[in-house]
Amino acid sequence: MKSYSLLIVFLFLNFHSLIGQNIQSPEEFLGYKIGTRFTRHVDVVRYFEHVAQNSDLVQYHNYGRTYEFRPLTYAVISTEENLNNLEDIRKNHLRNTGVESGSYNKSSEKAIVWLSYNVHGNESSSTEASMKTLYELVTSKKDWLENLVVIMDPCVNPDGRDRYANWYNQVKAEPYTTSPMAIEHNEPWPGGRANHYLFDLNRDWAWATQIETKQRLEIYNQWLPHIHVDFHEQGINEPYYFAPAAEPFHEIITPFQRDFQTEIGKNHARYFDEEGWLYFTKERFDLLYPSYGDTYPTYLGSIGMTYEQAGGGSAFLGIDTREGYELSLVDRVEHHHTTGLSTVEIAAKNVEKLNTEFQKFYSNENQEYKSFVLSGNADKLAALKQLLDLHEISYSNAQPGKVRGFNYSNNDNSGFTATEKSLVINTNQPKGKMVSVLFEPSAQLSDSLTYDITAWSLPHAYGLDAVASTKEVSAGIAAGAQSIKNTATPAGPGYITKWNSMQDAKFLAALLKENIRVRFSEVTFENNGKKFDRGSLIITKSDNRTVENFDSKLVEIANEHQRQLTAATTSFATSGPDFGSPEIKPINSPRIGVLRGDDISSLSYGEIWHFFEQQLEYPATSIGTDYFGDVDLSKLDVLILPSGYYGRILNEDGLEKIKTWVRAGGKVIALGSSVGYFAGKDGMDLEEKKTEEEKDTTSSGNLIPYNQRERESIKDLITGSIVQTSIDHTHPMAFGYGKSYFSLKLSNDSFGLLEDGYNVAYLQENPEIVSGFAGSEARKNIINSMTYGVEPMGRGSLIYMVDNPLFRAFWENGKLFFVNAIFFVDNDDLNR
């Protein structure tokens, strides 16, 4: 019996030894040395599957699909024993935060490390490194795994990576060329950096507008790792960057998080110094903006870090640097591989410390603001709840009554009166620090030189009244959402519905796609004793005589979109215009074109593309800049110009073509930097404002010292600040808004108030920057400036949107301006 048992043990050990021997290295599996070519995403997946199938130390999962239907995956690496108890380990870890109920078992604690690769598709060395790192963890470094769970996402952005790699494989020389002038080092528009809709996924963690982010957050929130690394690439002449990060650090970040970044950085430095590899730390990449792959995890208690390898979108397999050496993909992979392993190593040595400090982070007693209370438009509150649900942040309804605290709309401590429909988000919950960051009235800046926008406060982004209270606000009884069920009323002349949210806009788009004619009111009116505001939609039986089953079809669409219809018993108004009045204007189904291509910001174009397809769900035609001169504009009603440089696209002939089309009834909507193209053009009202320094033509030279130039320059900058604008709420472009609007100002671009056109949103004598950084000269220059304006031209118009309301798709409250510009401004001409 004893010998039989020994035989079983021998066979068991031999079996596991054979499994280990069956794990091929990436080179063996793929048939080439890592770094000598770009691995297709499908082959990366195949390799991870191979390792998981042949190792007891790896579990490999899909967590979703991209827009182009490529798999999104992650591997969990640990000891066999840990993987057999993985769910217990995960829940025990979450009990340390309070996210999971129950008592924490300190004796079985583990450290959780999450490594994210290739969030930018053309920063591709990291995905190659992920395969080497995986192989080494399950072979030579498996002793580190005893008290660790390592999670690896080998490619956060498969669509962008394949766009990048596929193009390169089509054009590269054989052997590859290292000269920067070669075609293979000059990626064409739009490049591989972004995802399918050309969004920067590294700036989408908090806003979760993209399908990749939404699906990743579901898994990320199941783990909440102690350490999260985001692998990147930077310019070819900047060797390697790793932690510690640069100032400014958000004030919510703990001393331990800062110190442990340094500890990790010193471990990396040890390996880099041994090899003679150059690196830098503490510069450029700060920890403030909450939607990065380093900051978002940091605000959830992680040691969140960015690692940046020289290369970017131009290095490919190898490129000559200005230092006189070739930067090869082989070397880039090795550097990322080294920091990845170094991170795992330092985690394995600090399991107890990481868990102890993680628990401390989730204690929220000392938060300045105990509660955030929000009131306003029910649709906007519902949209905010959807975002909070994605982040698994708790909220509740308020008890009616006065709430004391900082009032966001008034920018003072006046508080406000909450109703039972108001929303309460308390910071005394596990993710309380993240709540503070996302809802804080204004982020504190320890340094004005930052890498991204400096303001993002969600109450302003969603257009809600809010109070930040230093006392915890008691929750009321949660009111269940009531389903809207309209019924057909064929005997009446038509139906009326409100207009003040993106949900209303989607409803309108759905009606127009079904060829249901809709009107809107330019003035307030009263029908059958009920008051309706400007912009209210009117859908009449008269306009839809040819629509089969009109009433039932309309009701079905309204119920699907949960829009409340008011059935009118008469088109005779109690006050204001009747349904047949010229003040009740028809909404045509506009034919929309969007420019894309060289000289256009791919990010700006992507925001517009995503808006029409994924948010508004209304068709728009993308038009390439390379053939725009041959396009027959009479086939369009609206032409949208993303941010970009239009001097070459719209030369003298191109501008004249645009003007002729506009005079005949066309409409141009210019976003962001494209607005500046029209400034000062012959026959146009738009004029750009210059700072005093820009106006000064008598300067005798710049005597500012070299080491002060960068800091001196920021006085002319606005870096993503929230500014309160005045609104002409009687103009159709502003329907659904009140008399003021909080705009996200992304640059110091400034244009004077229109003399002959309409200043729909504008800044007056004392523009109030309520959050974020704005330099002293930039503040002066935006006095009496236009934010959104309409310049009539013949039968058409030019619409200027200086502040981009579609920026990264997260500034929800600005989107209705864009929709109004499309559907309400100069869109009632039946004879176009």
CATH superfamily of the largest domain: Zn peptidases
CATH second-level architecture of the largest domain: 3-Layer(aba) Sandwich
Counting helices, strands and paired strands, the structural category is alpha+beta
Shape: globular
What is the average per-residue confidence, as pLDDT, rounded to a whole number?
93
Under CATH, the topology of the largest domain can be stated as Aminopeptidase
CATH C-level class of the largest domain is Alpha Beta
**What share of residues is helical?**
25-40%
Largest sheet: 10 strands, mixed
Distance between the termini: 95 Å
* Number of helical regions: 23
Tally of strands: 35
Can you walk me through this structure?
Helices cover 30% and strands 19% of the residues. It has four domains: 25-361, Aminopeptidase; 371-469, no CATH class; 494-587, no CATH class; 592-682 and 713-823, Class I glutamine amidotransferase (GATase) domain (Rossmann fold). Strands 26, 27, 28, 29, 30, 31, 32, 33, 34 and 35 form a ten-stranded mixed β-sheet that branches. The chain is an alpha+beta fold.
Q: Which key phrases capture this entry?
A:
23 helices; Aminopeptidase; 832 residues; seven-stranded mixed beta sheet; alpha+beta
Architecture blueprint of SSEs:
Layout: H1 2-22, H2 26-30, H3 41-53, E1 58-65, E2 71-77, H4 80-84, H5 86-95, E3 111-116, H6 125-137, E4 148-153, H7 158-171, H8 211-223, E5 227-234, E6 240-241, E7 246-249, H9 255-275, E8 286-287, H10 295-298, E9 303-310, E10 318-320, E11 326-328, H11 329-348, H12 351-361, E12 371-375, H13 378-390, E13 396-397, E14 401-403, E15 406-407, E16 416-418, E17 423-426, H14 432-439, H15 458-461, E18 465-469, E19 494-497, H16 502-513, E20 518-521, E21 525-527, E22 530-532, E23 537-540, H17 550-560, E24 566-568, E25 584-587, E26 592-596, H18 602-616, E27 621-624, E28 638-641, H19 652-663, E29 667-671, H20 692-695, H21 709-713, E30 721-727, E31 740-745, E32 758-763, E33 768-771, H22 776-781, E34 785-793, E35 796-801, H23 815-823
Parallel strand pairs: 3-4, 3-5, 5-9, 7-8, 26-27, 26-28, 28-29, 29-35
Antiparallel strand pairs: 1-2, 2-4, 6-9, 10-11, 12-17, 12-18, 13-17, 14-16, 15-18, 19-23, 19-24, 20-23, 20-25, 21-22, 30-31, 30-32, 30-33, 32-34, 34-35
Helix pairs in contact: 3-6, 6-11, 9-11
